[in-house]
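Let us work through a complete example step by step.
Step 1: write down the sequence.
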Amino acid sequence: MSRRALSGSLAAWLVFACHAAHAQDSRFSGTVAVASQLVDRGLAITRPGPVFQGALNWTSPSGWSAGISASAEARTPRGFVGFVAQVAHSWSLSPDWQMQASLLDYRYPRHGGGRTYDRTELGVSWIYRDVLTFGLSASHMDRYGGQRPRGAADLGFRWPLAHGFAFTASAGVAQELVPPRGAGYERRNHYYYGHAGVAWDQGPWRVEVAHVTSDRDRPRYQYKVSPWIATVAWTF
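Step 2: predict the structure and record it as tokens.
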């Protein structure tokens, strides 16, 4: 497994990405993290402010892995923001290339009603030396099951620098998960997003600061994406 999760515009579920560096050393591992906002492919899941995250992961020498993560806003620690469950399988294509297929289930208990982002996502990605990642995915919306799946394509980049630092960047395009009120899929239904930042890794610790951008038209009732997002994570 690579830092694949970072390709989704500074992963909302960074805990899966942090786990990757230790996946081959231990069958079980976990991560705790705090981020300044929860963002998923250019969509703000929470308001700007501290968000606590935690994850537990299992990996096997045969390439199978599974994990579950949860997030909660600091302002409302008893109200979880969301949960993600993941099952994946990785293959080694060559000494430089890996491939991974994954199935993820997203649940946002605080996003009730007809505009929830609850979904199941099937994805496949190709990883080059843990430096370049390209992924394709299709999502089925639980509350909008009668409509076609939503597609997304993500490109992630990580270039090591000196003293544990690395430059990170991503770019992606995705179809709207939920059409805006009063609009259908006859309109332009895709948007672009990405990020550029710097990460620092030292042992089990990881710190990242990134600038996030998106050309998505945000409805007034949805949270605004903060242009700068910071994350501190510890993996065990």
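Step 3: interpret the result. Residues 14-20 form the longest helix (7 residues).
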